[in-house]
Amino acid sequence: MQLVLRFQTRPSVRRLMLAGKAPGLQHPNSNSILRGLIITLAYDDVNRTVTKRLLEKIGCEVTAVSSGFECLSALSNVEMPYRVVILDLQMPEMDGFEVAMKIRKFYGYHWPLIIALTASTEDHVRERCLQIGVNGMIQKPVLLHVMDSELRRALQSASE
């Protein structure tokens, strides 16, 4: 007995999302609230380059750093008014939680917005983020449409 399966080939939804071509995904335009948004991306692994490119694809200006110390140093640069910090919660030496607490201690709770990157789906991680003043969370693996919508949500919440 022989079983033959036939599949129609087409691009995967994941590939479309990463390329920014998923159905319903808003592409940036000159009126986009994300165009020109200045972001510090603190991410410790090889996905930093991919995440940086995704942010640039939706119109953001991104400075990528590889550690919490570099993130705090970048924020002290008065020539670059970073509006958003995207933090990987699992960085070595100083994790994203500690970086977020230092940012809130030095800069307050209204600036910059902090978005956490995490692979965790556990409620205690989300609760801890809320307690220390993180404005949003993006689940890994990072997808373009998720990042776009979470940034828009955090920016809108901050403006209310």
UniProtKB/TrEMBL annotation:
<feature type="modified residue" description="4-aspartylphosphate">
    <location>
        <position position="88"/>
    </location>
</feature>
<dbReference type="GO" id="GO:0038199">
    <property type="term" value="F:ethylene receptor activity"/>
</dbReference>
<dbReference type="InterPro" id="IPR001789">
    <property type="entry name" value="Sig_transdc_resp-reg_receiver"/>
</dbReference>
<dbReference type="GO" id="GO:0016301">
    <property type="term" value="F:kinase activity"/>
</dbReference>
<dbReference type="GO" id="GO:0005524">
    <property type="term" value="F:ATP binding"/>
</dbReference>
<protein>
    <recommendedName>
        <fullName>Response regulatory domain-containing protein</fullName>
    </recommendedName>
</protein>
<feature type="domain" description="Response regulatory">
    <location>
        <begin position="37"/>
        <end position="155"/>
    </location>
</feature>
<dbReference type="Pfam" id="PF00072">
    <property type="entry name" value="Response_reg"/>
</dbReference>
<keyword id="KW-0597">Phosphoprotein</keyword>
<dbReference type="GO" id="GO:0005783">
    <property type="term" value="C:endoplasmic reticulum"/>
</dbReference>
<dbReference type="InterPro" id="IPR011006">
    <property type="entry name" value="CheY-like_superfamily"/>
</dbReference>
<dbReference type="GO" id="GO:0046872">
    <property type="term" value="F:metal ion binding"/>
</dbReference>
<dbReference type="GO" id="GO:0051740">
    <property type="term" value="F:ethylene binding"/>
</dbReference>
